[in-house]
Amino acid sequence: MHTLFGENILSPAADQVPLPDPFELAFNLYPSASSDTPSKSSPPQNDWLTQLQKQAPTDGATSFSHGTQQGPPPRRKGNPRLLFMGLRRCGKSSVQKVVFQKLPPADTLYLEATNKIEKASMQSFMNFESAEIPTQLPVLSPEYEHATVFTNIGAVIWIIDSQDEYLTSISELLRVAVFLAENYPRANLEVFIHKTDGLSEEYKYDTFREVRQRVQDELSDFGYGDRAVSYYQTSIFDHSIFEAMSKVIMKLLPQLPAMETLLTKLCSTCRIQKAYLFDTVSKIYIATDTSPTFLKDYEVCSDYVDVIVDIKQLYGWLDAPKDAPKDGSQPQNEDPELESEGTQPKIEGVQPKSEASPSKSGSSQPKSAPDTNMLGESMVTFDKGGDNYMYAREISNSLSLICLMGQGSGPDKRKLIEYNVDILHDALLQVFKV
Ligand SMILES: Nc1nc2c(ncn2[C@@H]2O[C@H](COP(=O)(O)OP(=O)(O)OP(=O)(O)O)[C@@H](O)[C@H]2O)c(=O)[nH]1
């Protein structure tokens, strides 16, 4: 049988400190202050960080020049925190509540203005933590104790209302960008060009281009032209907000390169068109293969995750109360194995195989998988010939592999696919240091 993975595919090396929390970053992955050249693990765009490391004075919240310190390197502890910022009524609360608290988008019409820092969290494969900063809070002013807000921040998400006049928002965004570059260079800056629903394609494109151009030009003038800022077009009324959040969160996972390599190998060996590792509850994907991503692929896979969750609601969850609600705060989706340092992850064999495969439309041909193991597995086709189909395999209670199968991966390849997915599953266990 054709096997997928070589022995040495997984990184980092075995003698590294285990990372039970997927978000804990060991800062020794980065070049030390004493090194003159960037290490292999540092992409060229991060060279400026190396330079800053050499210059930066050590102060508790912002320092990362640990290279000359004794003892173990400092690590980013706990869950990564996302900060939502932007002008009034740009949609900060809406994004936070729709993504993390599963509020129906239409209900955001009735949200009240935010006057204090509002936090949200969601327990799933990862524990998401986010906070919304009210516009009127002067968090950037020197008098403000900004360490309380920005320490251990993973990413700042700046939201621009594209249906409103956005020049003021851009100038505020630039203040934040410069502040982060000077004080918290490890925090990612992500810009959501938001409320794109109802805009013409041409207007959307022009707005996107203009915002990006202005920000990059101004940042260059401030001397931070090499600071990476990412831009996304988002709306809470479609899947774009989930796709954007996936990309924001993926960047914070130290295991991402290993997961991407595994999924890319799986795709090329089994002729899979696109493979996603989904956090089942939030519908945020934490990794995908390296082929281009299209919103349509994400949409169809995300809808399939919904169907799977609905079926689990009907037939019950093996490790959790059957009547648990679907939102993010319920216990059935907790993955205690990845939450505490002392607990070993156990992400194999937690779910029985789905008895019923979902049917999406009249023309779909659901098939149920044979009973060869104890993992949740299902397939659904969306053409009469059965050549195009989706394949789902649960990796854990709250992590699912969803694949869009391409030409040449028909039913005769079923055994090969199952075999390789089994290997992927084992490899993922190693990535998360079982
Ligand atoms: N069309 C559209 N409207 C949106 C979107 N996101 C949010 N809104 C609307 O924008 C309005 C303001 O949303 P909020 O989430 O309250 O904005 P905010 O930034 O938290 O507001 P403050 O707390 O007052 O600063 C609400 O009426 C939302 O329904 C979107 O993607 N598209």
TrEMBL record:
One of its GO terms (biological process) is cellular response to starvation. Residues 54-70 have a biased composition (Polar residues). Coiled coil: none annotated. One of its GO terms (cellular component) is fungal-type vacuole membrane. Belongs to the GTR/RAG GTP-binding protein family. Component of the GSE complex. This is GTP-binding protein. The lineage of its organism: Eukaryota, Fungi, Dikarya, Ascomycota, Pezizomycotina. The gene is GTR2.
